[in-house]
Amino acid sequence: MKIILQIIMRSSGSKKWRGSRLATVLWLGIALLAWNPVWLSAAIPSKEVKIAVRAFNGVAAADKRWSATAVYLSQTIAGYHFVMIPIVDFGEMETAVELGQVDFVLTNPIAYIGLKESFGVNRIVTLVNNVGGKAEKQFGGVIFARADRADIRVFSDIKGKSIIGVHEEAFGGWRMQLVELKKHGISPAKDCRQVLFADGLQEPVVFAVKEGKADVGTVRTGIMERLAKKGEINLADFIILGRKTDDFIYPHSTQLYPEWPLAKLAGTTDELAREVAVALMTMPEKHPAALAGGYAGWLPPLPYHAVVNLMKDLRVEPYENYGQVTYVDAAKKIGQWLLLLIFFVGGYFLATLYRKRKLESLVGARTRELQIEKDNFLNILNSMTDGVYIVDDQYNIEFLNAALKNEFGEIQGQKCFAYFHDRKDPCPWCKNAEVFAGKTVRWQWRSHKNHKDYDLIDSPLKNADGSISKLKIFREITEIMQIQNKLEQSRNRLSSILRAAPTGIGMIIDRVFNEVNERFCDMVGYTQAELLEENARMVYPNDEEFESVGREKYRQISERGTGTVETRMLRKDGKVIDVLLSSTPLNFDDLSAGVTFTVMDITKRKQVEVELEKYQKHLEALVKEQTHKLEEKVTELERMNYVFVGREFRIKELRDRVNELEEGKD
């Protein structure tokens, strides 16, 4: 944001926050809208809009990087379908513009200047690249060699060596470096043994130097770092010649130049160009299109004077005749000095008159343009839901937009601490000291007037006269803070539950621990730090147990939503415990979202079950033994009973015989 404001202020060209400086505020409104995008309802595209984009890493890479931006524009601007046309060759892009085969062109600055002078294209926004997580509106060029080449350490060592560039018309991959070499008295065409080019592609240049096919290479900043991130090169294998010392994140050998502009063709309507500019400048910072494109956003069009100066220095078309005064040579040849003097004086007078009239015409046209911009963008700025105000180092409010007026009322000559805080002196928490020292400060504030929460950004704003003001941006976050408070309360409740739970509780994602409570840590003998982000295999005694639990658990989940299995777990101290494991997914349709689990230590229960089983077996054996003895006694009793019955029968017979004898005696 600080970079945006500084660029806007430099382009305003006035001394106070009035007049043309108001145009700065209007452009600022467009930049601020990036915080509050308005998504238009999706409509069926009715017209195709083609954007030619310079494919410096090949068509496939360009399509991958920019196709999401085309989709974003198609979804944001109703009635149009945007497509990106990757073009590697500079001549093909020039032909496409000349024949009107595209509506917009996104290319390097030097190609833009050439297209502007030849075909009247006009930039509408400038790209802000995401360079190592930092927003950068500039880039540079690199001159490099292999680190093991002890004979190549400074620019003068390039003489007599072979050098390879991206293309003879490449900006960051050749012409930036040409200017730098020229400052050191080196002309590759004259001083180098061989000059090679890589057909407009950046990465082959790096590989050519790495493989020894060329001694020295030239590419734009960030290319070597990108290859190193992919593991294709090691940055330590290369040395950067003429390395600059500044705050730019990537090493570079040249000065920095403004990033790529997006320009409209002369035949593209201003209305469509404005819609595209607003859509790009209001794109959310983390939008998928920005992430895919590797950029941080878009700015109002930057000045490209440094690029023009480079082109003039190198005599690049259309400045190939820059600095030549052919009429002087003609005058010398004919020897008519007097005629030359008269011609010069008359020409000077006519040129002065012409320049004066042209300047008056340009001033009038520019004034009308600024008036139109003011009328168009003032409404946008004052209709923003985000508040913005500007204050000087004496706490005087210089600008206040409609959003803040609606919330806090008219200024009525009040200083900022009185207007916002009802104070009679500066606020103890005021960020002015840090901001006027050049820092950007982001903080949060709750207003006692309207009881709303705000996310604030305080940034230094350099004025055209060299003075510094502070710009403060208000983003209401009351609802967000309420949600955050509720989330914090929910987290605290959940944390309390996890701490109080008598069972182990946690969550895994792809069977990797994502969350565990203290009870589970106690059960397995590990700390939370030792478990988190580790595979659950570490708490199982062997692979077979781990795989078996996974199969059975996920089978049950697929059938009834929850899986419960008895298994064994291996503690850190080597002890194996018996557990009851239950698992339930967060999303039944997407197991990769995570699975919550509970673990109950059932080791003692299992031990009791074993003891019960032993006791039951012992009891069964005892019963069997007693039964056998009882059966033996029953058998003996039956035998004795049989004998007893036999004896009774015999006695009865004897009694009957005695009775018979006694009856016979009588």
Salient structural properties:
666 residues, alpha+beta, D-Maltodextrin-Binding Protein, domain 2, 5 domains, 7-stranded mixed β-sheet, 24 strands, 46% helix, elongated, disordered N terminus
What does this structure look like?
- This protein has 22 helices and 24 strands.
- By secondary structure, the protein is an alpha+beta fold.
- It folds into five domains: 37-136 and 259-305, Periplasmic binding protein-like II (D-Maltodextrin-Binding Protein, domain 2); 139-254, D-Maltodextrin-Binding Protein, domain 2; 326-382; 387-481, PAS domain (Beta-Lactamase, 2-Layer Sandwich), CATH 3.30.450.20; 501-601, 2-Layer Sandwich (Beta-Lactamase), CATH 3.30.450.20.
- Strands 1, 2, 3, 4, 5, 13 and 14 form a seven-stranded mixed sheet that branches. Strands 9-8-10-7-11 form a five-stranded mixed sheet.
- α1 (2-12) packs antiparallel against α2 and α2 (21-32) crosses α14 (337-382).
- It is elongated.
- The N and C termini lie far apart (151 Å).
- Mean pLDDT is 84; it is low at 1-45.
